[in-house]
Specification:
Beta-galactosidase, Chain A, domain 5, alpha+beta, 19 helices, signal (chains A, B), disordered N terminus, homodimer, ten-stranded antiparallel β-sheet, disordered C terminus, 7-stranded beta/alpha barrel, 28% strand, six-stranded antiparallel β-sheet, Immunoglobulin-like, 4 domains
C-alpha cells in the first residue's frame, strides 16, 4: 500500500521538507518602524469556475484551456509552510478548500489545523467563493459567506478577519458595510477600481480609506478598505510560478548568472515606487495571482532569498493582510473617508465593465429564482426537520454559493462553465424540490403527527412555468379529477396575490379551502410562447411537451405568513359557472386612436396608430404621467482594427451607436378580464412584450421575450428598453446596492474625482438588482427587476434597462469567447431567447420606497406553487389546508423580513431578520422596529438565543469587542452616533432593528423535535 | 532562521508527505507472468544546455525561452518518493545532480542515499550528461562518463546498470560496446533510430536486440539494446506535468467528470498497441520527457491511480530500466543480433540528422583541442602532484564533460548556449594552462626537489596559434633575449615532429638542449590570416594584437614519450646562420603547365592553368594517383512553403542543389624550404587553402579558412571539399565510430533494411571523428580530420567533407534559431570563419591503418608548446631540459596509447591503456600486445594494481561476474570466443591488450608523493 511505514524515513522526511537547502535564509524579519516595511503576502486566487469548471480547476483537468490545478496548490503549500515557520499563506475560496479537505486523512487535517492555529495558514474572506459585488443579491452574498465561514469555524475554530475581494469588477457598498463590517472584518482589500479614480488616489495617497457603505448604519458599519495600487499580482518581475519568466534570485556563486544585487535593486525600486503612493511605511505586495502556487516551493524559494538579501539593506517580511492591517492600525493615523461604492469599473478609457451587469440574463434569472426558492425551501426544511442524509437543501446552497462567484452569475465565464453552474443549480433544485414537496406533504397531511415518512402526497412543482410549461397543472380534469394547488408564502407577511398556471380545460372552477368558489380568469396562452415552450422543453428536458394548453388560469390567493393555503381546481358542471374567459381585442393601426386598459386604480393608455404606450394614470393617488416605452439596441463595438482594440464583450459594454427598434407590426392585442388586463405587442420578429395590469395592484408588470437576437448582419447587439416620462430628474437616479441600499447616481459625474467622460452610455451604467428610480420635485418613477441587470438614466425622465446581449467578439479580458449564447436541440442551435419581467410604478414623491421594498420582497420570494391530483372529494377533510409557520396572531412588521430561517446541521436554528428600509426612506417605516421572537416559533420553547455576526461564525458581542476603531481624516476623532437596535432581552426576546439593520441569531429550542402548533 | 525545530511538526510532516490522500492507492503490483506487464518508468530528461545554459536549466532562470528548472525536479521528487515506497524514479545527468547535491544539507543527502540504496531512486547512465554519439571522441565519452559515475560511486556506493541514451540523434557502435558493455551496463536504451528502420523493427518485433558494436571484441562486449517504439515520452494522453493537458485520472465520484473507466481503456489500448510490437510480455513506458517532474507529485498522483485501477483489470507497475531488463532477461529468450551502428538518423523522409555532424565546426574544434590538451594537462598534473584546492584540471574536465552533451558539441544549441560552453572551456583551459605551466616549470626547474611552489619560470602558451597569434613567441629577441620553448609530448611514443610559431625576428637561430643548432625554416605569414588574427583577437580578447609577425619559425623537434624537450631561440649574430627563409613563387594562370611540390618522398603536382591539384606520387611506396580537390557548397533547402516543411538547419542536412566553387583567382603561391613546402590558394574571397607537405612525412596536410560564408543572396550554404581519386571503391567507404572502430558504409544502402532513398546526399553522410577512407583492390585513400565533421563518398573514388555550414532557417527540431554563426567586435558582426586542417594519404591496400592510427593519435595529441623568455645564458645549466615520464629505456608499443593518466582526488592513479588497432587492420599491429606497467612509473613503487571497469567505478572482475549472458537468435547459444588480454599478473604487472581493447586500472604507489626518477 502507498504508505511509508518506516519511522526512520518519516523522521528524515520531516526534516527534508523543513530544510531543503544547505544555505539557510533568514526569513524572520519583523517590522521596522523606521523603514519601509514590505509585507509579502503569498496568495493564490482560485476562480470558482471561469474558463474551466470549478471541479476542473480543482482536479486540474482540461488544462488545454488553462493550466490550473487547485489540488496542486493545496498539496504543495503544506510542505512549503512546514519547512519554515516564518512562511505564510492565505487561502480564500472555500469551495476549493472543502473539496481538498474532504480528500485528506485525519493526520493531514491535524497538520493543517496546526498551521491555521499558528497563523501560518490564514483563511481570508472565507466564503465559498469570491463573490461578485455588482450582480449578486445580498441574501446570496450572506448565504455563501456563511456557508464558507461556518465551515472554517467548525473545522478550525477561527474567524476570518479580512475581506479579500481582489478580483471582482468593482466594489459595492453592501460588500463594504454588510459583508465587511457586519461580518466582523477588520479590513477589506481589492484590486479593481476605476483607472481615473486610481490615478487620483495614488496621487493623493488615498487608495486606503475608511469606507462607510451605508447611509443608515454609517460609522457603525465602516471598514478600513484598501485598493491595490495596480492589481493583485506581484510587481513586474516578481512572479515565481513554475515556468514563470521573472528572473529568479540566483545566489549560487558557483553557477553563472549570479544576480542578487540586481534583484535587490529591482525589489527596492518597486518598493519605493509603491511607498510613494501609500500612507505610512507599510506596503503590501500581493505575491501570487490566479491559480498560482501549483508548486509552492518555487515562490517561497525566491521570497526566502529576497527577504534574506533585501533585509541586509532594507525591510521586508512574510505577512498576511491581517498582519498588514494590524500594522496599519498601530500607526494610529486618520484615513480618508469613502462613501457609496466603486461602480462602475473601467480599467482604461472606453473599457467600462458594465456589460456584465446584463451578460447571460437567463443565468442571472436562474440564479435569482433559485435564491428565492432556496429561502423558501429552507423554511420548509426547518418546519419538517432537516435530514443530514438528504434530501436536503445543501446541494442547492452549494450550487448557489458557487454561482455567486465573480465569473459565474456575472456571465463572464465560458459557455461550458455557464452550463456547469446551471447544471449544479438544477441538481440542487431537484433535491430541494423534494424537500419542499415532502415538507408540504408533511405539513398538509393531517396524519403527519406520526411523522412525515409516510406522507403519500406527491406534490409537483413547475420550474418552467415561465415558458408556459407545467405538466402538473396541465392535467385533464374533465373526468372529475381535481387539481390541488398548495400555495406557499415565504414572506413574513400575509399576502394576497394573483397566481397563474396553464390548464387544459376551459370550464374550470376554483374553490378555496373553505369550499368557497373563487373568482378566476382564463387568459389565453400566447403564440409567442408556443415556440419557447416547445423548443426549450426539448432543449432542457430532451422530450417533446404535450400540446400547448389554451389557457392560463389566474385567480387571487391569500396566504398566511410563512404559510400556505390550498385551492382546488375542478371542472364545472355548468357552463359559465367557472372561470371567466378573457375578452380579446386586436387593434390594428387604423382602428382608433387610443385604448385604455386597467380594471383597478391604475390605467394605461396606448396609442393605436403607433401601437405605443402613452399615458399612465393612477386614480387613487392622482398620479398622471405621459409614459412611453420603447426598445433599442446598441451595436457592439468592434475594435479589432483600432490602435487600442476594445470590443464590446462579456465584461465590457462598448456601444457603437444606438438603434431604435420600430415596431414592425404596429398592432396591439388587448386581453381583458376581471383580474388581469394585458396588452400584447409583437415588437419585431424577436421581441414580444406583454404589459400586464392587475386589478388589485398599482404597478405595471412588463413581461418580455427578447431573442434570438439576430446576428446575420454580422453585428453583435445589446438590447435595451427605455421607459420615458417627463420627470425632471436632473441627471440623477438611484440604483440599489446588491438589492439593499439605494445609491445616488449622477450622470457623467463621480463624487470622488472629476470624471473624464469617454463613454457616455457605458460609463453611466450601474448594476440593478432590486430596482432603479428617478424623482423630481413631485414624483418618483421606480422600476423593479426580476434579476440583476444593467441600467441607467441616460436622458432625463428616462430609465433604461439592458435586457439581453448577444455579441460576436471577445473583449480581451481572458474569457476568450464571444458572448453568443445559443440553445440547441440536437444540432439545431438558436440564439438564446430571454424571457423576463420588470415592474414599474410612479408615486408621489416620498411614497415610492414602500412599494419598492415590499413588492421587491415579493419579486424575490414569489408564491411557491405545488400541485397534486385527487380523484376523490375529501382533500380538505383529510388534510390541513392552511398553515402558518408563525403565531396565528402575529405577522412581521411591514419593514421587516425573515431572510434566513434554517435548521443548521448542528441542530441550532439560524434566523436572520432584516430591516428593509433605509433611514429617511419612508416616513413611517424608516424607524426602529421590534420583532417578537417568541411569536415566530409557536409550539416551540426557545431555550437560548445568541446574537451572532452576519455570517454566523462568532458571537456578535465578541465581534464588537474586537472591532478596530479607525479614525477618519478631518473628523473630530469620535465616530458619529448611529441608531442601532438595542441588545436582546433574553427574557422578552424582542429584537429591535434599526433601518437597514440585519440581525442574526442562533436559536436553540427546548425540544429537538418540532412540535406542530396545532398539536400544542 | 528558516528551520522548523518543533519535533512534533516534523513528525507530522513526515506523514504528511507520506500520505497525501484519504484514498489509498495500491501501487504494489509485481510482475504477472501471464499478462502484459507495463513497466512505468518515471523519468526526466535534462539537456545539459540547449535552449538555455546548463546553469539556467538548473536554477530555472531564463524561463521565457523554455520553462525548465531542474532544481524543482530534484526538490520535488524526494517527497514524492518518500510518500510511497513503490514509487520509483531514475536520474541521469550528473551535471545537474551534482549542482543540486552540493546545495543539500547532510540530512537531505542521507535521505537521498537511503532512496538510492532502496532502489527507489536509481541513477541511470550516470555520466555528467547524455553525450552525443556521433560527434564525440571516445576519450571524451569515457572521461565524462567516468566523472559522473565515479561521483555516484563515491557518494552512493552504487554502479549504474543501464545505458540510457534516449535523446541523442543516432547511436554509435562505440557507445554500445565501449560505453555500454565495457562500462558494465546490463542494457542500453534509446529513442531515436531511422524511421524506416523503426517501421521494420516494429513489424518484426526487433526493436530490442543484442548489439555487438565491435568486430574486434564481438560477443565479449555485446549488450542488450532497446530502441523505443516511438520516442522517450509517454503514450499520447499520459503526460502529467503541471499544466499538461492530458486528461488526469479523475476518480473522485463527488466531483463532475469522473473518468476512470475511460482512462483505463486508454491505458489498455496503448499497452496492447505496444505489446504488439514487442517481444515478451514486458513493455516499458517512459513516463516523462524533457525537464518534466518540476512538481513530481502531479505525475505520481496520476500514475498511482493508473496502477491502482488498471491493476483491477490488468498489469502494470512502477519500474526502472533495471527492473525491466531483469524481467526481460528472466524470460531466457533469444534476441536478434545487431552489428555496426544506427547512423545516420532520419526521423522522417527528407529529414536526415546529418547536418549536425558539422554544425558549429569552430566549437567542435575547440572541444577537440581541449580534449587533447586535457589529456596532456592531466599527465602533467600527475607528474607534479594534484592540488585539490587548485589550480587543477577539474574545471576543464567539467567543461569538457558538459560539452559532450548532445546539444553541445553537436552544434544544435542556441547561440548563447554555445557561447556558454565555450566560456566554460575557456575558464577550464585557463586553469589547466596554469597546471601545465607550473608542472613544466616544476619538472624543468632543477631545484624542484625542494618542491614546486617556488618555481619561478612563467611558461606561456598559445591557444590562438591557429590564427597566427602567439604573444609569447612574438617577442623581439634582437637585444639578446632568448626564447625558451619547451615541447611536451603526451603520447607514449618518442616523437619527431615539426613545430611552428610566429616570430618577429628574421635572423633567428634554434638550438636544442645539447646546444646543437637545429635546422629551421621561416615560413612567411599569410595575408589571409592577418584579418583572422586581427579580427578574432579583438573579438575574443577585446584588445588589438600587435603587428602581424612576418614569419612562422618551423623546425623539427624530438621528444621522449610523456616527456618534453627544450629548444632555445635566439637571434643570430651572423647573417645566414639562422633559419632558412622559404622561397616564394607565384604562379599565374599562363605561366607554365604544372608545378610539383614536396621535398621528401611525397610529391604533389598542381596544374597551373586550373590552379588545381592533379597528381600524387609517393616515391617510397610507389603509390601514384591522380588526385583532384575542389570546393562546393550546397544550398540549404527552404521548405517553408512545402506541405511537409523541412528546412536544412542545425540538425538536419537537406541540400537544394550542389554548386561547385570555381577558383576566382586561379593563382598558386608556392612556398618552399628545407622542411616544409606549401601551396597557397585563395579559392574565392572567403576560402583560403594551404596544402602543406613536410619533408619527413608522407601525408598531405590541408589547412583551410572557410568563411564568412556569404548570405547576401538570401541562401544558406553548406560548404564541402571533395578529394577525388580514381579508386574504384564500389560505393563503399569506412568511417570511424567516435574515433575508434571503423565501420563499413555502403552508399544508398543499409544493412538492416531495404533503404528507400530520398536524400542521396544527406542520407549518405556519416560522422567522422578520426577519419574516413575508401579502398579498392590496390590502394586505400585515407583522410583524417582535426575535429568531428560530416562526410561521405558520394561518388566512387571521392571523399567529401563538410567544412562549414551557415544557414538562414531553423529546421524545426526545437532550437528555433537559424545556424548563422557570427563573431562581433562591438557592433561589427561577421559570419564566423572557420580555420582547420585535414590530412590525407594514399597507401597500398593494407597499409593505411598504420598511418590512420598512429598519426590519428598525433592529431588528437599535438605537441604542447610552452614559452619562456630568458635574458641570460644559463637556461640549460639551471634547468632540466628533457624529460620523460616513463622509464628511459621504455616506449609504449606502436599499437598502444595511454588515454588516461590521472591522479584522482583519492590519491589513486587512474591509468587507461588502449589498443589502437582492430583485428585484421594491420598484419603486424593487430595483435595482442603487452605493456609493462612498472616501466610506466619509474621511481615509484607500485603497491597495488586493480583492474576496473572502463568508467572506473567497479572492479573489472566483479563486473564480469555480474554480466548478463544474453542469447542471440539463430546462434548455438554459446557466444563466439573472442581474444582478450589475459588477467594481470600482480607480480609481473604486464598488461596484455587485444585489438581494440581498453583496460583501466587503479594504481596505488608505496609513496604518496611523486619521486622524480632523477632522484631515484
Amino acid at each position: 500500500m502507498g504508505i511509508v511505514s518506516l519511522l526512520g524515513v518519516v523522521l528524515l522526511l520531516g526534516i527534508l521538507c523543513a530544510e531543503s537547502k544547505y544555505m539557510v535564509y533568514n526569513t524572520s524579519s519583523g517590522i521596522d518602524a523606521g523603514k519601509i516595511n514590505v509585507h509579502l503576502v503569498p496568495h493564490t486566487h482560485g476562480d470558482v469556475g471561469w474558463l474551466k469548471t470549478v471541479d476542473q480547476y480543482y482536479v486540474g483537468s482540461n488544462n488545454s484551456i488553462q493550466g490550473a490545478c487547485v489540488q496542486n496548490v493545496l498539496d504543495s503549500i503544506l510542505p512549503a509552510l512546514l519547512a519554515d515557520k516564518n512562511r505564510k499563506f492565505i487561502y480564500v475560496e472555500q469551495a476549493f478548500f472543502q473539496r481538498w479537505w474532504r480528500d485528506q486523512s485525519e493526520l493531514i487535517q491535524s497538520i493543517v489545523k496546526k498551521l491555521v492555529s499558528s497563523g501560518q495558514l490564514e483563511f481570508i474572506n472565507g466564503g465559498m467563493c469570491m463573490h461578485d459585488e455588482a450582480v449578486t443579491h445580498y441574501i446570496d452574498m450572506i448565504d455563501q459567506t456563511t456557508l464558507g465561514q461556518r465551515f472554517i469555524k467548525e473545522e478550525f475554530g477561527v474567524t476570518p478577519r479580512i475581506g479579500w475581494q481582489i478580483d471582482p469588477f468593482g466594489h459595492s457598498a453592501v460588500q463594504a458595510y454588510l459583508l465587511g463590517a457586519e461580518v466582523g472584518f477588520d479590513s477589506f482589500f481589492f484590486g479593481r477600481i476605476d483607472y481615473q479614480d486610481r490615478i487620483k488616489r495614488k496621487k493623493e495617497k488615498s487608495l486606503e480609506v475608511i469606507w462607510r457603505g451605508s447611509k443608515s448604519l454609517g460609522s457603525s458599519a465602516q471598514i478600513f478598505a484598501g485598493a491595490f495600487p495596480q492589481n493583485y499580482e506581484p510587481p513586474r518581475g516578481f512572479y515565481f510560478e513554475v515556468n514563470d519568466d521573472s528572473p529568479i534570485v540566483q545566489d549560487d556563486i558557483d553557477l553563472f548568472d549570479y544576480n542578487v544585487q540586481d534583484r535587490v535593486n529591482d525589489f527596492v525600486a518597486a518598493a519605493i515606487a509603491q511607498a510613494n503612493v501609500t500612507r505610512t511605511n507599510h506596503i503590501m505586495w500581493t505575491m501570487g495571482t490566479d491559480f498560482k502556487y501549483q508548486y509552492a516551493l518555487t515562490w517561497f524559494r525566491n521570497m526566502d532569498k529576497l527577504i534574506h538579501y533585501v533585509n541586509k539593506v532594507g525591510f521586508e517580511l512574510y505577512s498576511t493582510p491581517s498582519i498588514y492591517t494590524d500594522a496599519k492600525y498601530a500607526m494610529s493615523k486618520s484615513w480618508p473617508l469613502k462613501t457609496d461604492d466603486y461602480f462602475p469599473y473601467a480599467d482604461r478609457a472606453n473599457a467600462y465593465w458594465t456589460g456584465y451587469f446584463t451578460s447571460r440574463p437567463a443565468l442571472k434569472r436562474y440564479v435569482r429564482t433559485m435564491s428565492g426558492y432556496h429561502l423558501a425551501a429552507r423554511q420548509l426544511e426547518f418546519f419538517k426537520g432537516r435530514s443530514d442524509s438528504g434530501p436536503n437543501t445543501d446541494s442547492l446552497a452549494d450550487a448557489l454559493a458557487i454561482a455567486q462567484h465573480h465569473d459565474a452569475v456575472t456571465g463572464t465565464e465560458k459557455q461550458h462553465v455557464a452550463n456547469d453552474y446551471a447544471k449544479r443549480l438544477s441538481i440542487g433544485y431537484a433535491e430541494a424540490e423534494k424537500v419542499v414537496a415532502s415538507s408540504l406533504a408533511c405539513l398538509a397531511d393531517s396524519n403527519s403527527f406520526i411523522g412525515c415518512g409516510d406522507s403519500t402526497t406527491n406534490f409537483q412543482q413547475c420550474p418552467l412555468l415561465n415558458i408556459t410549461y407545467c405538466p402538473a397543472s396541465e392535467t385533464d380534469l374533465s373526468d372529475g379529477k381535481k387539481l390541488i394547488v398548495v400555495v406557499y408564502n415565504s414572506l413574513g407577511w400575509k399576502r394576497e396575490d394573483v397566481i397563474r398556471f396553464p390548464v387544459v380545460n376551459e370550464d374550470v372552477i376554483v374553490h378555496d379551502s373553505e369550499g368557497r368558489k373563487i373568482e378566476s380568469q382564463l387568459v389565453p396562452t400566447v403564440d409567442a410562447y408556443v415556440d419557447l415552450r416547445n423548443y426549450y422543453v426539448r432543449a432542457y428536458l430532451g422530450s417533446n411537451p404535450n400540446a400547448v394548453p389554451k389557457y392560463w388560469l389566474a385567480f387571487t390567493v391569500s396566504v398566511l405568513p410563512l404559510g400556505f393555503s390550498t385551492y382546488i381546481i375542478s371542472t364545472s358542471q355548468r357552463t359559465g359557472a367557472g372561470s371567466t374567459k378573457s375578452a380579446i381585442y386586436k387593434f390594428q393601426r387604423d382602428e382608433r386612436s387610443a385604448v385604455e386598459v386597467g380594471e383597478g386604480n391604475l390605467k394605461l393608455t396606448f396609442a393605436v396608430p403607433q401601437a405605443n404606450l402613452i399615458n399612465y394614470i393612477n386614480s387613487r393617488n392622482l398620479v398622471k404621467e405621459s409614459v412611453e416605452q420603447s426598445f433599442s439596441f446598441y451595436i457592439g463595438y468592434n475594435g479589432s482594427l483600432d490602435k487600442e482594440p476594445q470590443n464590446s464583450g462579456a465584461y465590457i459594454f462598448r456601444p457603437n451607436g444606438t438603434y431604435l427598434i420600430k415596431p414592425e407590426q404596429a398592432s396591439l392585442t388587448v386581453i381583458q378580464g376581471p383580474l388581469i388586463h394585458e396588452v400584447h405587442q409583437q415588437i419585431n420578429p424577436w421581441i414580444f412584450q406583454t404589459t400586464r395590469l392587475y386589478k388589485e395592484k398599482e404597478h405595471v408588470e412588463v413581461e418580455f421575450i427578447v431573442g434570438p437576437v439576430p446576428i446575420d448582419d454580422g453585428f453583435g447587439k445589446e438590447v435595451v428598453t427605455q421607459i420615458t416620462t417627463s420627470l425632471d430628474n436632473s441627471k440623477t437616479f438611484y440604483t440599489d446596492s446588491n438589492g439593499r441600499d439605494f445609491i445616488k447616481r449622477i450622470r457623467d459625474f463621480r463624487t470622488d474625482w472629476d470624471l473624464e467622460v469617454n463613454q457616455p452610455f457605458a460609463g453611466n451604467y450601474y448594476p440593478i438588482n432590486l430596482g432603479i428610480y428617478i424623482q423630481d420635485s413631485e414624483k418618483e418613477f421606480s422600476v423593479l427587476v426580476d434579476r440583476s441587470i444593467g441600467g441607467s438614466s441616460i436622458v432625463d425622465g428616462q430609465i433604461e434597462l439592458m435586457l439581453h446581449r448577444r455579441l460576436l467578439l471577445d473583449d480581451s479580458r481572458g474569457v476568450a469567447e464571444a458572448l453568443n449564447e445559443t440553445v440547441c436541440v440536437r444540432d439545431d442551435c438558436r440564439g438564446l431567447a430571454v424571457q423576463g419581467k420588470y415592474y414599474y410604478r410612479i408615486d408621489p414623491l416620498g411614497e415610492g420606497a414602500k412599494w419598492r421594498r415590499s413588492f421587491g420582497q415579493q419579486i424575490y420570494s414569489p408564491l411557491l406553487l405545488a400541485f397534486a391530483e385527487e380523484d376523490g372529494d375529501n382533500w380538505m377533510s383529510s388534510h390541513i389546508p392552511t398553515f402558518s409557520g408563525i403565531d396565528d396572531s402575529y405577522t412581521l412588521p411591514d419593514n421587516i423580513a425573515v431572510i434566513t430561517l434554517q435548521e443548521l446541521d448542528d441542530g441550532k436554528t439560524l434566523l436572520r431578520l432584516a430591516h428593509l428600509f433605509e433611514i429617511g426612506e419612508n416616513s413611517v417605516l424608516s424607524v426602529v422596529t421590534s420583532v417578537e421572537l417568541k411569536k415566530l416559533f409557536p409550539g416551540k420553547k426557545i431555550a437560548k438565543v445568541t446574537e451572532v455576526s452576519l455570517s454566523a461564525n462568532q458571537e456578535r458581542e465578541e465581534m464588537e469587542k474586537k472591532r478596530l476603531v479607525w479614525k477618519v481624516e478631518g473628523s473630530s476623532g469620535e465616530n458619529p452616533k448611529v441608531v442601532r437596535g438595542g441588545p436582546l432581552d433574553p427574557k422578552k426576546l424582542v429584537v429591535e432593528l434599526a433601518p437597514m439593520e440585519i440581525r442574526t441569531f442562533f436559536i436553540e429550542f427546548d425540544h429537538t423535535s418540532f412540535k406542530r402548533k396545532f398539536d400544542a
